[in-house]
Design brief:
heterodimer, A: 15 helices, B: 327 residues, alpha/beta, 4-stranded parallel β-sheet, 39% helix
Chain lengths: 437, 327
């Protein structure tokens, strides 16, 4: 068992208790053992003390959308390398998407992930299981057995189920086992050959556009089916103001629906794509600045519940292609918090609101004990410097893939220490930037 | 009819002409109006070379030109080949089609391979918008875009402009109606950019299913009625309708398309009496254009092909010969 830890002189930000105050946190036996305002009290013998003067201590982040390449494409990312990237980004738990080879659509594969993660990964990996066999959108998987094996949620990952009848059946059966369903909303025929946000920029670039209705039409369908079935429904990611409007209307009637958003859609827009920068080819696509403003409002109002990295490692080979032929996706675990802090520094989102969407809110949706700073809760914690300046360098990313949408970006705010169950899993002092500082 | 010819054809001799400042020609969007006029003047001076008996002006002798066409295009490839040969370059055609993709070679790999052969210029056509720009970043020589997806086809726009200038004596103030499959056309985009830069009035004429969102940012006026769109036009430019578009998704049938958007005598009567008719080829007679008009007195379609060689000679000369005099 690790030594007791005291984090002293910190600014404690805990969205679950609405706390944003100076104080100290005591960690013993992997759990939070005490919280005090002011100086720490009752320090046990042999405790390791971290002086967090000028720093924020918050619950470790919970990222609801992470892809890896294990099993099947380990050259892109393994569970261990993803966990290392997560720890560096202050992420102490992440929901693992089932889009692997083979697809995680069977209890034995959930078990495989949990055992591999337990042996190799420094952070908590929460496997999500496929809604449909092979992510084909045709037959539902064994929800009950998958839950028993340890799946925390059901999702078809990057895929979007097109059949309303199948979705209805899946939602109904998921409710039977009280499993949340996380669904990527994308109307395939409206997307067609589309590769970026539809509009003048796509037209000038000669690229096929993806209209916002490719998101709002399936979202409207899903929200109605969620009302019909009573399932715990989470729209995996929205990107448009029109989707926020739909969520606001649905949430007036339903407490069982929620929605997530990728940090990319909150901090970047379609202008970042030009000219043909395939590292900004994402799904959903980067939208207009008007939509970006609207989703920030949606985050502040609570219409959007969670922020995730959409970490999606792709090798350079499939990204350095003509734009339309390149794969979607970007890595993001390591830059999640720093990128999110842009919204705080720009005055768009209060820090506690931002952190709520990455800590207590995902914990509530997934039924986790973590995501809060409370006595007895797992000591999954992040200490970060909200002002620390640094530049994202492809070469220093821990992920096995380098397809970052923030390559070369200037960041204000960096993770200093990350703890999982009271154990230090990342320390900034051990990094190049830390050594420079 | 023609504007005054410059005294010589290359920057090195005779009249002083500023060197062409670009290494690549990737799109009209990179050119300002002075550079467009410069290229058109250079091209105009190239016209007599192709009309004389010994069709050679060896400014590119010893240079290697690779034509890299990922999409089939007999006419554009031949035009670039002839242009290069008339300037004395050694020209190699590489027809890649989609087979290299099937073999797993990426565009970037192909670029690296060709670059190692030390060419002086690579002419690229590719089905994906932006692909030529990507390739240009990976090679050490000049690159000319011979069409990338639905993005740009700069030499086509230049040859169209040269043809218009030959007939109308100017570009500024002309009303040019571009008709047909605007959504999928790189020819339309390059022409809109060029004509916009030269202060011509541009119109796009098409059914709404073939008009992309935001096209009004590129064209002066947008019409869905062809008669209104051709009213008073100096130039009528028809675009090819890919047969697969008329499959009930975008267009219900060729018959309906021709009825409303095919260029026939009656619709053409709305344009100015001296309006010229253009088409980048290859034509679908009876789909977007009445054969009688395509072959009629107002058609300048074969002249466009001739101007194409002159324009491509001028572009090659500007990119390669000027570069040499710089060094």
């Amino acid at each position: 068992m690790s030594k007791p830890v005291v984090i002293a002189n910190a600014r404690i930000v805990d969205p679950a208790s609405n706390r944003d105050a100076p104080g100290a946190v005591l960690v013993e036996k992997g759990r939070i053992a005490g919280i005090s305002s002011g100086a720490p009290q009752g320090i046990p013998d042999g405790a390791e003390t971290y002086d967090a003067r000028g720093l924020v201590v918050a619950p470790g982040l919970i990222d609801m959308r992470v892809f890896t390449g294990e099993p099947g494409h380990e050259y892109r990312e393994t569970l261990a390398s993803a966990a290392e990237a997560a720890a560096a980004g202050g992420v102490t738990s992440f929901v693992l998407m089932p889009d692997t080879t083979p697809v995680i659509d069977d209890g034995a594969l959930v078990d495989f992930i949990l055992r591999r993660a337990g042996a190799k990964a420094s952070v908590n990996i929460l496997p999500a299981a496929a809604i449909t066999r092979g992510l084909k959108g045709e037959e539902i998987t064994e929800f009950g057995l998958l839950k028993e094996a340890g799946a925390v949620a059901l999702t078809d990952g990057r895929e979007s189920i097109q059949s309303a009848a199948l979705l209805r059946a899946a939602f109904t059966y998921a409710r039977n086992f009280d499993l949340p369903v996380i669904h990527h909303v994308a109307e395939r025929t409206l997307i067609g050959d589309g590769v970026m946000n539809e509009g003048p920029l796509a037209t000038i670039s000669g690229l096929k556009g993806i209209p916002i209705e490719a998101e709002t039409i399936p979202l409207a369908r899903d929200l109605q089916l969620a009302a019909l079935t009573g399932v715990r429904y989470h729209a995996a990611q929205v990107s448009t103001g029109a989707a926020v409007d739909l969520l606001v209307a649905a949430k007036r009637r339903l407490s069982t629906v929620s929605a997530g958003i990728s940090i990319n859609n909150l901090t970047l827009n379609e202008n970042d794509v030009a000219p043909y920068r395939s590292f900004f080819k994402l799904s959903p696509p980067l939208r207009s600045e008007d939509d970006r403003r609207a989703v920030i409002d949606g985050l502040n109002s609570g219409a959007i519940d969670t922020i995730h990295s959409a970490h999606d490692p792709q090798d350079t080979e499939v990204k350095r292609q003509p734009f339309a032929e390149a794969s979607d996706g970007a890595v993001g675990l390591e830059t999640l918090l720093a990128a999110a802090l842009r919204l705080v520094h720009s005055g768009d989102v209060p820090l506690i609101t931002l952190l709520r969407a990455m800590t207590s809110r995902p914990a509530e949706l997934l039924g986790l004990k973590s995501g809060r700073i409370a006595v007895g809760a797992p000591a999954d914690l992040v200490i970060f410097d909200p002002e620390f300046p640094w530049v994202v360098k492809e070469a220093s990313l821990r992920s096995r893939s380098r397809n970052s949408a923030f390559e070369g970006a200037r960041m204000q705010g960096a993770v200093m220490h990350t703890f999982v169950a009271g154990r230090l899993v990342f320390s900034h002092a051990a990094t190049a930037e830390g050594a420079d500082a | 009819m023609a504007t005054s010819s410059p005294a010589s054809v290359t920057g090195g001799q005779g009249v002083a002409r500023p060197a062409f400042r670009h290494r690549h020609l990737l799109g009209i969007s990179q050119l300002n109006q002075y550079e467009i006029v410069d290229l058109l003047d250079r091209a105009e001076a190239m016209i007599p070379i192709s009309r004389q008996e010994r069709k050679i002006l060896p400014t590119l002798s010893g240079k290697t030109q690779i034509n890299l066409f990922f999409e089939n295009s007999t006419r554009t490839q031949s035009s670039f080949e002839i242009a290069g040969k008339r300037l004395g370059a050694q020209v190699t055609n590489m027809s890649v089609k989609t087979s290299s993709v099937a073999k797993g070679e990426t565009l970037v790999d192909t670029a690296a391979t060709l670059n190692a052969m030390r060419p002086d210029v690579i002419i690229v056509r590719h089905g994906a918008s932006g692909a030529v720009e990507l390739l240009s970043q990976k090679v050490g020589c000049s690159v000319i875009n011979a069409g990338d997806g639905a993005h740009e086809h700069p030499t086509q726009a230049l040859l169209d402009a040269l043809t218009m200038r030959q007939h109308k004596g100017r570009l500024a103030g002309l009303t040019v109606a571009i008709c047909g499959d605007i959504a999928n056309s790189r020819v339309a985009r390059s022409n809109l950019l060029l004509l916009g830069a030269m202060q011509a009035r541009t119109r796009v004429v098409a059914p709404r299913t073939l008009l992309p969102r935001g096209i009004e940012t590129l064209a002066t006026e947008v019409f869905t009625d062809m008669r209104q769109g051709l009213q008073g036009a100096d130039v009528v430019m028809m675009l090819r309708l890919q047969h697969e578009r008329a499959n009930g998704r975008m267009i219900p049938s060729v018959r309906e398309y021709y009825h409303f958007y095919g260029l026939d005598e009656e619709k053409l009567s709305f344009a100015k009496p001296d309006a010229i008719v253009m088409h980048p080829g290859p034509m679908n007679r009876g789909v977007e254009i009445d054969p009688a008009i395509a072959d009629g007195p107002r058609s300048v379609i074969t002249e466009q092909v001739e101007m194409g060689v002159a324009v491509r000679m001028a572009v090659l000369d500007a990119l390669l010969a000027d570069r040499e005099t710089e060094q």
